[in-house]
Structures are given as C-alpha cells and as structure tokens.
Amino acid sequence: SKRYSITLLPGDGIGPEVISVAKNVLTLAASLEGIEFTFQEMPMGGAALDLTGVPLPDETLFAAKQSDAVLLGAIGGYKWDANEKHLKPETGLLKIREGLKVFANLRPATVLPQLVDASTLKKEVAEGVDVMVVRELTGGIYFGKPRGFGKDENGAEIGFNTEVYAKYEIDRIARVAFETARKRRGKICSVDKANVLEASMFWRKCIVEISSEYPDVEISHMYVDNAAMQLVRNPKQFDTIVTNNIFGDILSDEASMITGSIGMLPSASLGESGPGLFEPIHGSAPDIAGQDKANPLATVLSAAMLLKYGLGEESAAKRIEAAVLDTLNKGFRTGDIYSSGTKLVGCKEMGEEVLKSVESQVPAA
Ligand code: NAD
Ligand code: IPM
Ligand code: MN
C-alpha cells in the first residue's frame, strides 16, 4: 500500500473542528484506495502564539516542508487582533505560504445543484456556475516593500504598503492559469486595475505576452471593480479568473457566496515543487467557534484537492467529492447552507454523515 505523510495545522476557532472531520474523511476515503497516511499535528496561528510565542514555529514549517502535503484549518481570533504585525496569527499564515513557496492558489467556486437554494442569488443566475479563481499568493501588496508605519513630509502619521510584481511572478501564475483554463472551458479573465495602478499595467502586459503561448485559450481583461459587479450580475460568464493576491482574496469570498456559503469553498496552494498547502478559504469564524455549527465541507473538499493536486490520487479525491454530494443529496445541511425542507446538523454530525457515505462506497478492485 502507498504511504504519505500529512502535516495537519488545525489552528484557531473552528479550525480544529473542521480539521478533525476532514482528517477522518481523508483517512477513510484513501484507505479504500489502499493509501495510508501518517499525520503530524503542529501548532500554527494563535494556538502557536499561546504555546510558543510565535505564530509559525520553525518546527512547524520544518515539519510542513518534510511532509507530502499540508492541510490547514484556519487561524486568527479576537484574542490576538491587537498584536503587533509579527505576532499576528495571519503573519504565520503568510510565512508558511512564503516558506512553502506556494505561489498559485486555486479556489474553485462551483454551484452544486443541491445547494442552488442556499445561494442568495436567483436560481437562474446561480445555477450551473463553475468558476476557478487562480489567485497569486506569495507576492503583491501582501509582501511588497516598502511597508510599515511612519510619517509623511508634513509629519502626519502614515501606514503604507506597496503593490509590487516581478515579471517572473506574473509569468508563472499566468502559466498555471492558462494550463488550468485549458483543462476547463478554455476561457480566462485576467482581473486587474490597469486603469490606475502601474503594477496592474505591468500585470496586464505580462499576461498578454504569455497568452500568445496559449492560442487555444480565450483571454479577456477586466477591471476589478467591474469584475466584482459582473460576478453577481452574471457569474456564468466566467470560467477561469486569474488575479493578484489581494483581488483574489476579495473576489473568492464573493464567489463563495454564489455557491451558497463560504463554508463550502476549498483551496489548493501549489508551488513549482514540494508539498502543497490545502485550506478552506474561510477564516476561524470566531462568532461560531466551539458551538459545533461550522460547515466542515470546505475543509473536506480541501482534503479532496490535497489528494488530487497534492498527491495525484484522483480516485481517492473522487470518493470524497462523491460522498459530499451523497450527503447533500440525503438532505443534511449545516446552518450556513440550510434551506427549508432540509435536515439541520452540526459540524460533527455532518462529518459522521460524510463518513457513512464514504463507507457505503465499494473498495477499489
Ligand atoms: P471568516 O471567514 O472567519 O468568517 C466570516 C463569516 O463567515 C462569519 O460569520 C463566519 O461565521 C462565517 N463562516 C466562515 N466559515 C464558516 C464555516 N465553515 N461554516 C459556517 N460559517 C462560516 O472571516 P472573518 O470573520 O473576517 O475573520 C475571522 C478571523 O479569521 C480573523 O482573525 C481573520 O484574520 C481570520 N481569517 C483566517 C483565514 C485563514 O486561516 N485562511 C481566512 C480568512 C480569515
Ligand atoms: C485567506 C485569508 C488570508 C489572506 C489572511 C487571513 C491572511 O483571508 O486565506 O483568504 O488574506 O490571504
Ligand atoms: Mn480571505
């Protein structure tokens, strides 16, 4: 049988709740394909701050680098919100993305037929939406220098950040996006703010250059304000969206709501080589943490992406996706995707139902 090592980073808030569900589902689905895992759970985010004084201990990054893939819950919480920059849980997350060099963040927003009624958009608008947001993850304003606090020429206090992109950073995310679009419906929309920002003008120029390597993919460009509007006006016009770090952060939360809930959206963060990082796009949801209310499906589907994109184990990934659909077909819903006539369950029960659906699958021959 095949063996892989997985680093688990439960993190804060609902993180441990959703990771516990995803771990069980991952283990069972993979075992049906003859795959075994060794899990190593490491502290990260606020949990690591409380334990070690830093949001990403060296041991955690080391373990992550040594493993075959990393599955993260979520980090952050009120308790650490006032911390200095280097002592914020969020800084730990940016550091692990940087440390693993996972520059390409795939965030698929798919409206499942079972959840059309959970979308806040009209049925005819939401039905059939299938968008892949390809977000640049290790550059842009999140990492650009100069940054910090200071004073302007008049002595007024300021805070500042810089949006910077090097050509190689845009080229490599563009290639990931074009390859992704090729396997989908062959359409890319590059989202920028090239009417105002130099970094976006440069972004667009590089995207146009790379597009000549992919004549089979249809490329279009859109300003981010228009894209935010178009996503709720007519989301079906989009296939693959490629965009920078901050626009991708914002647009993927927006896209998640078309599918019914942010609690449904998984993600895969990949580099040129080395382990990928897999995490739901949502945060630690401090407002519902510890109440067994979280939707674990975004993390369960992130585990499926781990199998598919991280380990190349497509059949095991399909088992998880099928089990999620089966569970939704049976009517089970957490609060965030509840609609009348369905069965309201908590995080744990949703996890148990997904496990039952995996159990009822036939083992691989
Ligand atoms: P959030 O995504 O945590 O929550 C936004 C809203 O969505 C909340 O009402 C929450 O209850 C709901 N929600 C989120 N996930 C859900 C789920 N699985 N099931 C049901 N409902 C869900 O965003 P926020 O409130 O802006 O941020 C909270 C904390 O999380 C902050 O500290 C932030 O920095 C952090 N954060 C972390 C990550 C991450 O770890 N990748 C991502 C985003 C935000
Ligand atoms: C996300 C989060 C993070 C981001 C924060 C918590 C650093 O919002 O994963 O989408 O902005 O990338
Ligand atoms: Mn975000």
UniProtKB/TrEMBL annotation:
<keyword id="KW-0479">Metal-binding</keyword>
<protein>
    <recommendedName>
        <fullName>3-isopropylmalate dehydrogenase</fullName>
        <ecNumber>1.1.1.85</ecNumber>
    </recommendedName>
</protein>
<keyword id="KW-0028">Amino-acid biosynthesis</keyword>
<dbReference type="GO" id="GO:0000287">
    <property type="term" value="F:magnesium ion binding"/>
</dbReference>
<dbReference type="GO" id="GO:0051287">
    <property type="term" value="F:NAD binding"/>
</dbReference>
<keyword id="KW-0100">Branched-chain amino acid biosynthesis</keyword>
<keyword id="KW-0520">NAD</keyword>
<comment type="similarity">
    <text>Belongs to the isocitrate and isopropylmalate dehydrogenases family.</text>
</comment>
<feature type="domain" description="Isopropylmalate dehydrogenase-like">
    <location>
        <begin position="5"/>
        <end position="354"/>
    </location>
</feature>
<dbReference type="GO" id="GO:0003862">
    <property type="term" value="F:3-isopropylmalate dehydrogenase activity"/>
</dbReference>
<comment type="function">
    <text>Catalyzes the oxidation of 3-carboxy-2-hydroxy-4-methylpentanoate (3-isopropylmalate) to 3-carboxy-4-methyl-2-oxopentanoate. The product decarboxylates to 4-methyl-2 oxopentanoate.</text>
</comment>
<dbReference type="InterPro" id="IPR024084">
    <property type="entry name" value="IsoPropMal-DH-like_dom"/>
</dbReference>
<comment type="pathway">
    <text>Amino-acid biosynthesis; L-leucine biosynthesis; L-leucine from 3-methyl-2-oxobutanoate: step 3/4.</text>
</comment>
<keyword id="KW-0464">Manganese</keyword>
<comment type="subunit">
    <text>Homodimer.</text>
</comment>
<keyword id="KW-0560">Oxidoreductase</keyword>
<dbReference type="InterPro" id="IPR004429">
    <property type="entry name" value="Isopropylmalate_DH"/>
</dbReference>
<dbReference type="GO" id="GO:0009098">
    <property type="term" value="P:L-leucine biosynthetic process"/>
</dbReference>
<dbReference type="Pfam" id="PF00180">
    <property type="entry name" value="Iso_dh"/>
</dbReference>
<dbReference type="InterPro" id="IPR019818">
    <property type="entry name" value="IsoCit/isopropylmalate_DH_CS"/>
</dbReference>
<keyword id="KW-0460">Magnesium</keyword>
<keyword id="KW-0432">Leucine biosynthesis</keyword>
